Model the fold of this input.
Amino acid sequence: MRISVAATGPHTDAVVAAITAAGVLVGRGVFPSGAGWSGNPGSSNYVPYAVVYPSPGVADGNTAEPLEYLDYSGQINCFGVTQDQAVQVADTVRGALIGRRLTVVGRSTYPVTSPGGPPVRPDNSVVPPVHMATVEIAFRSQAVPS
Done:
């Protein structure tokens, strides 16, 4: 007998959809098209963006329904040309997610929480450097009875 567990992909889709609806360019583990420098780095317009890095999720539940819940977490890296711009992107991302119940087909979600994140820091791997703010999120979903 095969027991199925909740897929994390639809949960990540819901996170990306919420960030997109808030007006932030977002990639799912990749640099989103149209983001970053629009020409020569440092002398052209910079379009801020976010990148979602999901966890694989953790199935949880009770002994009667051992795979009833999925505990989802992820990290969203928010990039801006300045520290303030990176923080503004992070604020928009948090506003789109924290305290909200995301829509995941076949699942009922709990409100998204944020356990914290590291300080805003420069990304010196690119020239000129940009800044990155990280938003960590977590939420639980439960199967909707059919």
Summary: The radius of gyration is 17 Å. The chain is about 20% helix and 35% strand. The first helix runs from residue 9 to 21.
